[in-house]
C-alpha cells in the first residue's frame, strides 16, 4: 500500500521539478541568447519540438528515480548528488531524442548545456524550499494525518522516533498500557502520554485521530480483539505490528535483506496470510531492467554477428563440430533453460570433465583449472576476449537471461547446492555480474561468489546494472579476470 506521504510527495516533487526545469530553460535561453549571442534563428515549430522532447525526457528521467524516499530527511549533499545525477540522465535522454528526430535545436550546444547546469542549482534549491513548505504548512493545509500509538514502554521510544520522521503524520499522543495512572501526562520523545490500559479506549473515542499504531505483546491473545474491532468501527486506519514477523527476520535475515524484505497481507482459505520475500523489484524496476536488456541485447546482437562470422572460420578449422555450444543451465528459482556460447572446447569436453575434477582450483561447486586441456587454441583467445559469450545476447533478447545478474550453474552443480546457495538464483541469470567485475580469476571460494551474488540482489538498482556493464567493458578490453 502506498502511504499518504508517498502520494503527496510524488505530486509535490513532480510539480517542483517541472517548475525548476521551466525556469532553467528561461534562464538558459536568456543567458545564451542575450549575454552570449549564441542562439540561432529558430522557428516556432522548432522550439515547440524541442520543448516536447525535453518534457518527454523529463518524464522518462523522473520515472527512473525512486520517489518513495522521505525528502524531508535528506541532507543537502544528497540533494545535490540526486540533482546532478537527474540532470545528467535528462541530458543524455534529451540529446538522444534530438539526434533521433534531427531537431534543429541540436545545433545550439550552448543552450543544451546551460539548461541542465542551471537546473542542478535550481533543483537543489527548490527541493530545499519544498522541504520547508512540507514541514511548516502541512498543518494549515490539512496535509498531515493525526496519529495515535497504543504500545508498551519497551517499544514506545523507537516507534515514536520513526513516526516523527514522517512529515505527513503528526503524533498527537501515546497510550502506554502497563504504566500506573500517575504517569499519565508525562512525555516520551516530546509526545504526551494520554492513557494506560484502563483508559486508552476512552482516549481513542474522544481524540481527533486518523490512524492508530498498535504494538502489543503476542500473548495478549483474544482479549485485545474487541478493542481492535471497535477501532475499525470508528473508521480509524489501524496499523498492527506482527512480533512473529520480527522474530522470523531476526533468525533468517541479515540487516540488508531485512531492509529489502517484501511484506504483504492477503487471504487464503478464509484466513489471513503474511507474504515475505527477500527480493522486492517494483513493476517500474522490472520494466526498466527489461528495457535495458532489450536495448543492450539488440546492440549486442548487431555487433556480435560480424565478430562471430570472423572467428567461426579458425574455430571450425581447429576443431570440427558445432559452432555454438548449447547447454542446459539453471536460472531464476530453479528454472531450466538453454544457454548458448561459441564452442571454445573440444566436442568431448563434458566427458573429459569427470577425469579432471581432481584438479579443480575452485573450492566449492564451480569448476575452474589453469590450462584446461579441453580448451582449443582459438577457444583460449575467444575466452580471453569474452567473444565466446556473444551468443548470449540472443538469450537476453529472448528473455531467458539478463545483461546483468548471477551466472547460472549447470544441472550437476545445482544438484549439490545447499539451501542458502539457491538464494543467488532469486533473480534472472546474467551475462555479467558483480562477481565478473570483482576479479573473478582471483576468487577461488564458491562461498565468496555466493556472497557477491546476494550482495548484488539485496542492493539492486538500475544504476548498479549500468555501472556493472561499464565495468565489464573495461574488464574485457583490459583482458582481466577472464580465465
From TrEMBL:
<feature type="transmembrane region" description="Helical">
    <location>
        <begin position="12"/>
        <end position="32"/>
    </location>
</feature>
<dbReference type="GO" id="GO:0016780">
    <property type="term" value="F:phosphotransferase activity, for other substituted phosphate groups"/>
</dbReference>
<comment type="similarity">
    <text>Belongs to the bacterial sugar transferase family.</text>
</comment>
<feature type="domain" description="Bacterial sugar transferase">
    <location>
        <begin position="289"/>
        <end position="477"/>
    </location>
</feature>
<feature type="transmembrane region" description="Helical">
    <location>
        <begin position="47"/>
        <end position="65"/>
    </location>
</feature>
<dbReference type="InterPro" id="IPR003362">
    <property type="entry name" value="Bact_transf"/>
</dbReference>
<protein>
    <submittedName>
        <fullName>Sugar transferase</fullName>
    </submittedName>
</protein>
<dbReference type="Pfam" id="PF02397">
    <property type="entry name" value="Bac_transf"/>
</dbReference>
<keyword id="KW-0812">Transmembrane</keyword>
<keyword id="KW-0472">Membrane</keyword>
<feature type="transmembrane region" description="Helical">
    <location>
        <begin position="291"/>
        <end position="315"/>
    </location>
</feature>
<dbReference type="GO" id="GO:0016020">
    <property type="term" value="C:membrane"/>
</dbReference>
<dbReference type="InterPro" id="IPR017475">
    <property type="entry name" value="EPS_sugar_tfrase"/>
</dbReference>
<feature type="transmembrane region" description="Helical">
    <location>
        <begin position="86"/>
        <end position="105"/>
    </location>
</feature>
<dbReference type="Pfam" id="PF13727">
    <property type="entry name" value="CoA_binding_3"/>
</dbReference>
<keyword id="KW-0808">Transferase</keyword>
<keyword id="KW-1133">Transmembrane helix</keyword>
<feature type="transmembrane region" description="Helical">
    <location>
        <begin position="111"/>
        <end position="130"/>
    </location>
</feature>
Amino acid at each position: 500500500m502506498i502511504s499518504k506521504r508517498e502520494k503527496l510527495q510524488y505530486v509535490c516533487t513532480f510539480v517542483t521539478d517541472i517548475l525548476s526545469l521551466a525556469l532553467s530553460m528561461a534562464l538558459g535561453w536568456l543567458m545564451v541568447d542575450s549575454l552570449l549571442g549564441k542562439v540561432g534563428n529558430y522557428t516556432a515549430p522548432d522550439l515547440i519540438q524541442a520543448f516536447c522532447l525535453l518534457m518527454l525526457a523529463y518524464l522518462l528521467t523522473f520515472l527512473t528515480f525512486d520517489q518513495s524516499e522521505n525528502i524531508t530527511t535528506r541532507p543537502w549533499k544528497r540533494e545535490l548528488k540526486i540533482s546532478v545525477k537527474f540532470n545528467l540522465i535528462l541530458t543524455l535522454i534529451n540529446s538522444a531524442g534530438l539526434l533521433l528526430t534531427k531537431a534543429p535545436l541540436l545545433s545550439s550546444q550552448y543552450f543544451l548545456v546551460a539548461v541542465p547546469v542551471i537546473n542542478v542549482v535550481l533543483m537543489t534549491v527548490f527541493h530545499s524550499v519544498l522541504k520547508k513548505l512540507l514541514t511548516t504548512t502541512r498543518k494549515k493545509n490539512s496535509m498531515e494525518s493525526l496519529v495515535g500509538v497504543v504500545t508498551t514502554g519497551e517499544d514506545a521510544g523507537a516507534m515514536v522516533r520513526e513516526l516523527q520522521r514522517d512529515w505527513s503524520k503528526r503524533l498527537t499522543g501515546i497510550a502506554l498500557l502497563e504504566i500506573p495512572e500517575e504517569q499519565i501526562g508525562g512525555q516520551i520523545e516530546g509526545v504526551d502520554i494520554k492513557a494506560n490500559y484502563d483508559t486508552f479506549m476512552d482516549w481513542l473515542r474522544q481524540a481527533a485521530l486518523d490512524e492508530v499504531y498498535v504494538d502489543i505483546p503476542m500473548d495478549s491473545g483474544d482479549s485485545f480483539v474487541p478493542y481492535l474491532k471497535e477501532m475499525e468501527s470508528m473508521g480509524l486506519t489501524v496499523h498492527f505490528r506482527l512480533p512473529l514477523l520480527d522474530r522470523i527476520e531476526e533468525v533468517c535475515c541479515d540487516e540488508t535483506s531485512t531492509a529489502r524484505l517484501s511484506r504483504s497481507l492477503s487471504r487464503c482459505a478464509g484466513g489471513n496470510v503474511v507474504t515475505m520475500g527477500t527480493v522486492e523489484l517494483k513493476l517500474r524496476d522490472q520494466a526498466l531492467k527489461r528495457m535495458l536488456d532489450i536495448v543492450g541485447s539488440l546492440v549486442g546482437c548487431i555487433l556480435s554477428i560480424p565478430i562471430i562470422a570472423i572467428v567461426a572460420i579458425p574455430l571450425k578449422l581447429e576443431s570440427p563440430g558445432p559452432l555454438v555450444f548449447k547447454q542446459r543451465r539453471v536460472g531464476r528459482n530453479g528454472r531450466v533453460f538453454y544457454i548458448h556460447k561459441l564452442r571454445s572446447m573440444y566436442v568431448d569436453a563434458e566427458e573429459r570433465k569427470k577425469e579432471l575434477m581432481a584438479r579443480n582450483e575452485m573450492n566449492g561447486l564451480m569448476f575452474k583449472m589453469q590450462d584446461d586441456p579441453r580448451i582449443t587454441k582459438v577457444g583460449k583467445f575467444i575466452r580471453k576476449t569474452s567473444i565466446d559469450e556473444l551468443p548470449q545476447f540472443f538469450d537476453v533478447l529472448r528473455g531467458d537471461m539478463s545483461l546483468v545478474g548471477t551466472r547460472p550453474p549447470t544441472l550437476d552443480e545445482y544438484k549439490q547446492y545447499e539451501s542458502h546457495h539457491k538464494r543467488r538464483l532469486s533473480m534472472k541469470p546474467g551475462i555479467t555480474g558483480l562477481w565478473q567485475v570483482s576479479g573473478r580469476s582471483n576468487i577461488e571460494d564458491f562461498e565468496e561468489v555466493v556472497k557477491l551474488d546476494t550482495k548484488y540482489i539485496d542492493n539492486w538498482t538500475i544504476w548498479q546494472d549500468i555501472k556493472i556493464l561499464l565495468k565489464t567493458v573495461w574488464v574485457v578490453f583490459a583482458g582481466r579476470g577472464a580465465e
